[in-house]
Design goal:
Elements (H helix, E strand, L loop, with lengths): L8 E4 L3 E5 L17 E6 L3 E2 L18 E7 L3 H5 L5 E4 L3 E4 L14 E4 L2 E6 L2 E6 L9 E10 L2 E10 L5 E9 L12 E4 L5 E6 L1 E4 L3 E6 L6 E7 L7 E7 L4 E7 L3 E9 L2 E12 L4 E12 L1
Antiparallel strand pairs: 1-2, 2-3, 3-4, 5-13, 6-7, 7-8, 9-10, 10-11, 11-12, 12-23, 13-22, 14-17, 14-19, 15-18, 16-17, 18-21, 19-20, 20-23, 21-22
Length: 298
């Protein structure tokens, strides 16, 4: 598939520069929200904070990079209801073709047959991307994503409106591919929590303290680590701090919504804390929430 690659959009302050990929131009896959992908953030012209998705075989996986949003349905019912070669809706992306009778697989490169229409408006230090719905199986979501910078802080504000006939039951998270100054992922990275935590591992290991997590070993086959975080019940907001003593840098991550899930994935090239926001919208209902990232030197 060929597509036009427009120049990136830069959101800048004297302290921070965030490089934003034009919506639907540099990424056109079926995994990540096409709107508002931040490929890199640079602090004071000397520290960078993000990498791209790299698999154990050296490939670029599903094409993720930097800060990329992901919508996930609560169930596969919409996919299951579609016939072979028929479309099903993927929020943040568009209408995607069901290839065969196999179960839905999030890592499969499904064909996007009708991308959602988007309109981008930018000003001094801000950008707004509005994604309009294409109704399919009673599902129609209008997404407005606003990105702005102030001092060393990047803010992502989401406004979601259910314009369809059916309720929407899903979740959304930011897949943060952190790698400070390109430093490989290891136990010099530390993520600090505001609550006592526990972890449920899928593969690999991490050093889990009462309120901290540090990467430790990667699974031999997948060369990565993944696990769920528990302990956030009752948190109405969530503030995390990721720091690296070797690079002397950190980021404060503030979520103004109650987390519904918390997953961490990492390999040698990226450390990815993923905090999920629950989206339960009846027709004509809206939800608004935001994430703030403040980058700093230790």
């Amino acid at each position: 598939m060929s597509f036009i690659v427009n120049p990136p959009i830069f959101l800048e302050t004297p302290e921070l520069c965030a490089e934003l990929l034009p919506a639907g131009r540099c990424y056109r896959g079926a995994r990540y929200d096409w709107s508002g992908i931040i490929s890199q953030v640079t602090l004071r012209n000397k520290h960078t904070f993000f990498s791209r998705e790299v698999q154990a075989d050296g490939s670029f996986g599903m094409g993720g990079r930097g800060m990329a949003g992901v919508f996930v349905w609560d169930s596969d019912a919409l996919y299951d209801a579609a016939g072979i070669a028929e479309p099903f809706p993927m929020l943040g992306i568009g209408l995607v073709k069901k290839e065969d009778a196999q179960p839905f697989q999030f890592a499969r490169p499904y064909e996007v047959i009708s991308p959602y229409p988007r309109e981008t408006t930018c000003g001094d230090g801000w950008c707004r991307i509005q994604t309009s719905p294409l109704p399919c199986r009673g599902i129609a979501l209008r997404e407005t994503k606003e990105l702005s910078v102030s001092g060393p802080t990047l803010t992502i504000r989401m406004l979601l409106a259910n314009c369809g006939e059916n309720p929407i039951h899903a979740a959304e998270f930011n897949h943060n591919f952190f790698a400070f100054d390109g430093c490989p992922i290891g136990n010099d990275y530390q993520l600090t929590f505001p609550f006592p935590l526990s972890a449920r591992f899928h593969h690999g290991t991490a050093i889990v303290g009462c309120r901290t997590v540090r990467p430790h070993t990667f699974d031999c086959e997948l060369q990565s680590t993944s696990f769920w975080i528990d302990g956030y019940d009752g948190q109405q907001t969530l503030t995390l701090r990721l720091e690296n003593q070797r690079t002397g840098t950190g980021v404060l991550i503030e979520h103004d919504f109650p987390p519904c899930r918390f997953y961490i994935w990492s390999n040698s090239t990226a450390f990815c804390p993923e905090v999920f926001c629950k989206i339960d919208l009846l027709p004509h209902q809206c939800i608004e929430y935001q994430r703030r990232y403040t980058f700093y030197e230790l």
